[in-house]
Amino acid sequence: MxxxxxxxxxxxxxxxxxxxxxRRYLPPGASVPPAARSIGRGVVIFLGVGAADEPxxxxxxAEKCAGLRIFSNDSGKFDRSLKDVGGEALVVSQFxxxxxxxxxxxxxxxxxxxxxxxxxLYESFVQxxxxxxxxxxxxxxxxxxxxxxxxxxxxxxxxETDSRS
Length: 165
Fold this sequence. Notes:
With about 160 residues, this protein is an alpha/beta fold. The chain has a single domain (about 1-15, about 35-150), classed as D-tyrosyl-trna(Tyr) Deacylase, Chain: A (3-Layer(bba) Sandwich), CATH 3.50.80. It has 2 helices and 8 strands. Strands 1, 2, 3, 6, 7 and 8 form a 6-stranded mixed sheet that branches. Strand 6, helix 2 and strand 7 (about 135-140) form a beta-alpha-beta unit.
């Protein structure tokens, strides 16, 4: 799994009009989930699932994200984690993190897991963060989204699990 983690002051994800994926699964007259989801201070995690990833990777990566010491202490040093500061997480599925651009000009996404298998791993990651008592908002897996964030620092980190372990 790959995660691009950005420390933020605030962030939100919204779905362009008519693009909310829940619309196609709801019976007529049912209410549609919120068109926007927001967090305050915390992290935005763009999460990609690789073709060889297995369920334990989701838990390990969630633990790493929750415990990353990327928030400053009173001396200004990175010494506090998301949990330490009571921060929130916005998790957005991002298969394009597996785009291989080494050849040609069009990314090759063969390294990404197919959506039917990737969704449960994405959901496992989100659930693992919640078990760790991190308040989580999410995008919608496979949906077209607009993500806005105010990067704090900026602080942006790339995390990757070893899919072989």
